[in-house]
Amino acid sequence: MLVVVAAVACLGLAWWQWSRFESSSGSGQNLGYALQWPAFGVMFIYAYRRFVVLESDPDEVAKLSPRTQGATEIPADLLPPRPGTAARVTADDDSPPEIRDLAEYNRYLSELASSEPGPAQQENP
Questions:
Q1: What is the mean pLDDT of the segment spanning 119-125?
Q2: Which of 40, 38, 35 is nearest to 20 (CA)?
Q3: What distance separates the 2 farthest-apart alpha carbons in the chain?
Q4: CA dist., res. 30 & res. 51, Å (int)
Q5: Alpha-carbon gap, residue 79 to 49, rounded angstroms
Q6: Which helix (H) or strand (E) holds 76?
Q7: Taking CA 33 as the corner, what is the angle to CA 30 and CA 38, rounded to the nearest 5 degrees?
Q8: pTM of this prediction?
Q9: Model pLDDT, residue 113
Q10: Which residue in 19, 29, 46, 81 has the fewest CB atoms around it within 10 Å?
């Protein structure tokens, strides 16, 4: 019932936009809407029909399963590898000072992380 009301409402809005287009103040935008509203009504009917079929036919639901579509994992070599520790920045590097400082700070943090024992490795007093 709701689908019928929605489809009829879309047709009514299409008629209204068409009458606005034909009036003296109408524009091409009204014509565009007049052509779009019937498409929306057809979409309501199609979606309702598709939901009914999916509820009543388990074979249709099985066709939508990712296993039957051939879905696969993303290959491991698709993305570039993650960067390792920051490379040591030299004084003759052409990078801006902010980039050199950030790389040096990241190198310092990676040295700290590798030299300090973690919470599980610390001795209890």
A1: 57
A2: 35
A3: 90
A4: 32
A5: 41
A6: none
A7: 140
A8: 0.47
A9: 81
A10: 81
Q: What is the pLDDT of residue 85?
A: 46
Model pLDDT for residues 47-74, shown as the tens digit of each residue: 999 888 888 888 877 777 766 666 567 7
Contact (CB, 8 A) for 89 and 105: no
- Which residues touch 109 (CB under 8 Å, ≥6 apart)? none
**How far is residue 86's CA from residue 84's CA, in Å, rounded to a whole number?**
6
Place of tokens 């034909």: 22
Cβ–Cβ < 8 Å for 105, 98 = no
Q: Distance between CA atoms of 104 and 43, rounded to whole angstroms?
A: 58
What does the domain layout of the chain look like in residue ranges? 2-66, 85-116
Give me 123's structure tokens: 């001795």
| Pair of tokens at residue 122 | 């610390």
Q: Please give the structure tokens belonging to residue 50.
A: 């598709």
Angle at 114 between CA 110 and CA 116, to 5 degrees: 115
